[in-house]
Amino acid sequence: MHRTEQVSVLLLKIRTEMEALELWQSSPPAPEALASTQPFCVDTLHFSEWLQWLLIPRLQEMIRREIPLPQSSQIQPMAEEVFKQMQADTDALLDLIEQLDKTLCTLH
Fold first, then answer.
1. Of 43, 52, 66, 89, which one has the greatest count of Cβ atoms within 10 A?
2. Segment 37-78, tens digit of pLDDT
3. Cβ-Cβ contacts under 8 Å for 61 (sequence gap 6 or more)
4. Which residue in 76, 69, 39 sits closest to 54, CA to CA?
């Protein structure tokens, strides 16, 4: 499977897992919250919101427009830190995010 296809599949799986954990929201945050300049928008968004409203759409848009995907990714450590505070079982979601990091870091 080509790298962009792998990323597309992982993004869909991440969304599905976030929905199962009830982390997927139906309404976007305020535009100002999305405009943060902090890493992961830590000052304006929850990490799951950043995934849903910024990371996933950006990667999907890059794939759609055939823009080269990032060659590095360090999302999993942040996800692990954030999700360890949750009561829900986030192991599957963390695994998917780790797979995404590894896939983005794979040079093809």
1. 52
2. 988 899 999 999 999 999 999 999 999 999 999 998 999 999
3. 67
4. 39
